[in-house]
Specification:
Blueprint lengths: L6 H4 L13 H15 L6 H8 L3 H8 L2 H9 L5 H9 L6 H14 L1 H16 L1 H23 L4 H21 L10 H17 L5
Amino acid sequence: MAKKSTDDDKSPRRGRRPGPSTTRVEILAAARRLFGTRGYEGTTLRSVADAAGVDPALVARAHGGKDGLFRAAVAWPWDPAEVVPRVAAGPRSRAGYRITRLVVDTWEDPEQRAPLLALLRSAAVSDIARTLLGDFIRVEVMVPLVRACGFDHPELRGALLGGQNIGMAMARYVLRVEPLAGLDPDALVEIVGAASQRLLTVTLEG
């Protein structure tokens, strides 16, 4: 005689949830938490998957690997893998100006500015958001830009460029410091671009 089913037989199995039942929000929440506490280098797809309760292969497929997951966690408005080679193309003597143009054009676009404002404001009050944003700008944007443009010491130059451009964006678009806030974007690119070019070309020891 067949065994009669009971409520216990029908209860869901415990353990890792199947991929389709796990929302994108849950995966991204786990990624933000881990990237923000462990940093980019200290976070793996497996650690994110474990935190979200899914298979690592699902995370990799859903976001195209660690870089894609990192970009999604930060909610950056454009894909560095597409933009960096385009900005790097051109004379090295104008590389700093092109990098500054990228920063200014991004912030001048209201649709791209909105998520960046949220990131900066969060970074001002949250250690997790600060680590997340700082690591992203360094690992995904500025260091690859310096390296693609062919300059030495990409880690240091990238950090210097990141600090300069974050400071400029904070003063112009968040604090609205005048006369910087009212400066024409093209004039801003020429002024800050010259400083960026200097950071790319100044002799660094080591």
